Amino acid sequence: MKLSAGQSASYFAKPDADAAGLLIFGADGMRIALKRQQVVAALIGPTGEEEMRLTRMSASEARKDPALLLDAVKAIGFFPGLRVALIEDVNEITGPIVIDALAAWAPGDAQIIATAGNLKPTSKLRKAFEGHASAYAVGIYDTPPTRDEIERDLKAAGINDAPQDAMHSLMDLARDLEPGDFRQTLTKIGLYKLNDITPLNADDIAACAPVSIEADVDDVLLVVADGQAAAIGPVMQRLQAQGVNAVTLCIGAMRHFRTLHRAATDTSGRPQIWGPNRDKMMAQARAWGPVKLETALTELTDTDLQLRSAGQHAPALALVERTFIRLAMLARR
Q1: What pLDDT, on a 0 to 100 scale, did the predictor assign at position 215?
Q2: Spatial contact of 100 and 90, defined as CB atoms under 8 Å apart
Q3: pLDDT confidence of residue 213
Q4: Residues with Cβ within 8 Å of residue 83, at least 6 apart in sequence
Q5: Within 13 Å, how many C-alpha atoms sit on residue 215's CB side?
Q6: Angstrom distance (rounded) from CA 248 to CA 63
Q7: ∠ at Cα 172 (170, 326), nearest 5°?
Q8: Does an H or E element contain 112, and which?
């Protein structure tokens, strides 16, 4: 059975204990790892691994010993409770091993949890799980966590009721952070609010939010957005000496200016900017305004496309530096 994006969130929180298995596939390894961790914990509980009710293997290990997965599925455990046979990084080469184990599965066997990278709709592995009467398949895509997922993770961190404003702040933060970083931030918030009976607020979240990009990259972005064209050259030379590449700078700049644009167009009165440079970036958002920020984002997009072009031969860092100087001059208009 194929699970939709809406169905998958509730399934990961409360998986079918009688299912034959679950295939989790997608391009983002971190998101897949978090979902796999969640569903395995829901099936076997906190003591499952200690009680040897979890057998973990990689696809390469199963390829060397094709009977390894089926043995794990059919093995009889020493402790009562659900058992899981986890196989990671499956591809089309090792897929037949998983397909055979799924076909041989019977009620009472360990549940098969398989993870894989991107799989086409025509993939035999994907079709085997989607077409099985008691197995499931779900694709994990590069989307921020939903409100329900954030609320669930907050409860796991010890915060049961978050006010509406705090939830909006967290949803904005989730769009800016990688899934693993966001999960760690929620855990940090839970520790920060331990024994604190006051409601969660934006200041609490800002105190726990990580800096999204390296401080050295922040240096040049703050200089650019402040309109200090003359200061760009020395900072760029230092970054070049440290090995920072042009694409990293361009991506960081796009993230910085998108954040400014979101703050400049905010109508809620609570623009969401995080990290130690929050006050400076708030001032930059007011100074630039939405129109100039949109122009800056267009400039950065054009530069990013030029950097990735096959016909590009000019020094990459020089292109980025030239764009930064144009943006700094734009800030002064």
Answers
A1: 45
A2: no
A3: 45
A4: 44, 53, 54, 55, 75, 77, 109, 110, 111
A5: 2
A6: 37
A7: 145
A8: strand 111-116
Locus of tokens 């007011």: 286
Report the C-alpha gap between 53 and 83 in whole angstroms.
Answer: 5
| CA dist., res. 259 & res. 235, Å (int) | 22
Which tokens belong to 67? 């009977």
The torsion region of residue 161 among left (phi > 0), alpha (psi -120 to 50) and beta comes to beta
All residues at 6 or more sequence positions from 279 whose CB lies less than 8 Å from its CB, including other chains: none
Q: Is 12 exposed, middle or buried (0-12, 13-18, 19+ CB in 10 A)?
A: buried
User: What H or E segment, with its residue span, contains residue 22?
Assistant: strand 21-26
Q: Which long-range contacts (CB under 8 A, 24 or more apart) does 188-192 make?
A: 189/154, 189/157, 189/159, 190/154, 190/156, 190/157, 190/158, 190/159, 191/157
Q: Would you say 181 and 153 are in contact if contact means Cβ atoms under 8 Å apart?
A: no
Instruction: Give CA angle at 46 (22, 95), nearest 5°.
Output: 25
Provide the token pair at 148.
């329900």
**If you search the block for the tokens 């961790």, which residue do you land on?**
37
- Tokens at residue 183, please? 């999960």
Q: Residue 211 has what pLDDT?
A: 56
Instruction: Report which secondary-structure segment, H or E, holds 23.
Output: strand 21-26
β-partners of residue 56 are 86
* Regions of the chain with pLDDT less than 50: 212-215
Q: Give the CA distances from residue 225 to residues 174, 264, 267, 276, 305, in Å, rounded to whole numbers and listed in that order.
A: 24, 13, 22, 16, 21
Q: Are 224 and 324 in contact (CB under 8 A)?
A: yes
| Distance (Å, whole) CA 331 – CA 152 | 42
Question: What residue has token string 């016909």?
Answer: 311
